[in-house]
Amino acid sequence: MGTTQLETVPEPKYWHLKTVLTEALDSEFSVGEVLPNERDLAARFGVARATLRQALEQLELEGRLQRRRGVGTTVAPPRVGVAVGSEQHVWPGAVGDAWRPVDCAVAVPPAAVAEVLETGPDDQVHTIRRSRVTHGQPVAAELLYIPASSVPGLPAIDAPSGATLARAVLRELQHLDLEGQDRAVELGSARADDAKELDRLPGAPVLVVTTRYVAEGRTAAVSVATYRADTCRLTFGDSGGVEIHHDPERRAS
Questions:
Q1: Cα separation of 93 and 91, whole Å?
Q2: Do 25 and 32 touch, CB atoms closer than 8 A?
Q3: Which residues pair with 185 in a beta bridge?
Q4: Nearest by Cα to 203 from 78, 82, 61
Q5: Summary count for the chain: helices (H), strands (E)
Q6: Selection from 174, 206, 179 nearest residue 190 by Cα
Q7: 65 and 59 Cβ atoms separated by less than 8 Å
Q8: Which of 36, 94, 128, 217 is most buried, judging by how many CB atoms fall within 10 Å of its CB?
Q9: Residue 216, SS3?
């Protein structure tokens, strides 16, 4: 069998450097230790800073490194397992929910969300922001979009604003009979507001989990949750049997 064109392509220089850096991280650095600056690292390994930057970005994506504001690039701890759902369908805000309501506002959702909710282009919905902390560190930020039709009894509830209003909306949502939910996971980059909340730099790798909640034959709510890709591995189901690892050869303990 002949050699394919792909097999003849040499390994990218940054990929080889990533392997060398991984060995150095394992033998010379400890968790939380700050790496030398890019100039010194590039000089040590005899590569251009652009090549070094590519290798560092890949290691950050794989959860080996973290970029921290005012600190620099540090060696990351093992990823923390974070459950994003159970085998039973439940509404956001149900008993045992690990999320903390932060704020609630009425606003027009992004076009993609409005299409899923089947709301008009100018229709406003309740937009709840929630956060999630695991082992003392922020790991995820969520935007939960709930149309007025899903919480018809809300106007009778006296809830001023902010987290109090968010909890009121979630309580009202529990009155619907949840028929099902589905999720999609994709890799993305942190927007400025999410990066600030998660103590990351804008553009840092994140995992975006979109969940659609179905009741009365329609989409009753949509959740867009952003998880830190550098510190999280996501588990699905009560047993945590399905996990997402960007580097299958390195599993967090």
A1: 6
A2: no
A3: 209
A4: 61
A5: 7, 11
A6: 206
A7: yes
A8: 128
A9: coil
